[in-house]
Write a structure and sequence with these properties.
Helix 1 packs across helix 3. This protein has a domain of about 70 residues. It is globular and about 35 Å long. By secondary structure, the chain is mostly helical.
């Protein structure tokens, strides 16, 4: 049975999410764009979980995550259409 994505890619993606967020990329839109560029469109269904997982790891380590995109904004973010050239949807900002 195949889930359609290599579990190793998910592991690497989660590690990359953690490192990107720890390094200062705090806005979900910027994070998502980077991940799609690195892994392709197939990563889109997993972006929110990776971002949330990385947020929780950072919180557990005592990092201030208040400037990250809010959980509600990430939940409402349209990962299927955000990086289309003619996209008119607003970019999500952190700390809202």
């Amino acid at each position: 049975m195949s889930s359609g994505i290599d579990p190793e890619i998910l592991t690497i993606g989660m590690q990359m999410a953690y490192l990107r967020l720890k390094g200062g990329v705090v806005h979900f839109a910027e994070f998502a764009q980077y991940m799609v560029e690195k892994f392709g469109e197939g990563i889109k269904p997993y972006l929110k979980g990776m971002y949330d997982g990385a947020r929780r790891l950072l919180e557990a380590e005592g990092f201030d995550t208040s400037t990250m995109t809010s959980i509600d904004d990430v939940t409402n973010f349209d990962v299927d259409h955000f990086n289309l050239p003619d996209n008119n949807s607003p970019q999500v900002q952190g700390g809202q």
